[in-house]
Amino acid sequence: MQRFYIESTNISDTTIRIEGADVNHIKNVLRMKIGEKLIACDGQGIDYCCIIAEFEKDNIILSISERKKTDTELPAKLILFQGLPKKDKMELIVQKAVELGAYEIVPVMMKRTIVKLEDKKKEQKKLERWQAIAEGAAKQSGRGFIPRVHEIVSYQEAIKMASECDLSILPYECASGINETRALINQSKGKDSIGIMIGPEGGFAEDEVDLAKEHGIIPVTLGKRILRTETAGLTILSYLMLTLEE
Predict the structure, then answer these.
(1) Is the Cβ–Cβ distance between 155 and 161 less than 8 Å?
(2) What positions does the domain Ribosomal RNA small subunit methyltransferase E methyltransferase occupy (predicted)?
(3) Does residue 39 share a domain with residue 88?
(4) Are 118 and 53 part of one and the same domain?
């Protein structure tokens, strides 16, 4: 069934109003008709099973037949702190992280980050692009929540944010003990928030790892192979998704 995100202000007791680009998509691309069913989601975890009731010039009116909580969200908020990669890698990371259940993606400037975003206008355009990708991935994967792509933060800010999570881990090529990693991931059950710190292409500087440990963030190994920055976060998110899925 087709799925669309709508603003909560467009929801009444019995009807929903769709506006904007989705109107053209429903009318002229999908060519849906009055009486056809679709799902409208408020982006905050509630799905509305609806029937198309009326086409207006710039709006579509839906009749609500059922309200229900979206069942596609994980019980814990997974927050990905991603060392800013070069080129278009962040677009892939955002898309796949949302598909795997990430609650929020936080781009982080680290010591070995190659990209330097000093132009605020360019940075804002990138954030808007990443947020649009997150919304598209949320639609595709049936998420009940549109994950936020946070503004870019410093490593110190990211450490503070990660330390406030119930559990935070830092995949690190110099860490050892895969059984300890498995045990730690299993401890994620019952946690409300889990932070995942991922380094950029050059990896973490040693003092960055030390600072993370001082704030209770635990270095872990993901195995004997060194993973690219765009692979490491998705690997741990996949592991957590399968562990937490209900």
Answers:
(1) no
(2) 73-240
(3) no
(4) no
**Are the beta carbons of 37 and 66 closer than 8 angstroms?**
no
CATH number at residue 226: 3.40.1280.10
Answer yes or no: do 106 and 37 share one domain: no
What's the pTM?
0.87
**Rounded to whole angstroms, how far apart are CA atoms 62 and 23?**
12
Number of neighbours of residue 11 by Cβ within 10 angstroms:
18
Query: What are 86-113's pLDDT values in tens digits?
Result: 889 999 999 999 999 999 999 999 999 9
- With tokens 């070069």, the residue in question is 86
pLDDT digits (tens, 9 = 90+) for 194-241: 999 999 998 999 999 999 999 999 999 999 999 999 999 999 999 999
Q: How many CB atoms lie within 10 A of CB 91?
A: 16
C-beta atoms surrounding 89 within 10 Å: 17
Q: Give CA angle at 73 (109, 155), nearest 5°.
A: 10
Q: Assess whether 95 and 23 both reside in one domain.
A: no
Same domain, residue pair 239 and 117 = yes
Q: What's the alpha-carbon Rg for the chain, to the nearest Å?
A: 20
**235 to each of 48, 230, 232, how far by Cα in Å?**
33, 9, 5
> With 0-12 CB in 10 A as exposed, 13-18 as middle and 19+ as buried, what is 235?
middle
Same domain, 35 and 83: no
Q: How many angstroms separate the CA atoms of 104 and 158, rounded?
A: 12
Does 26 share its domain with 146?
Answer: no
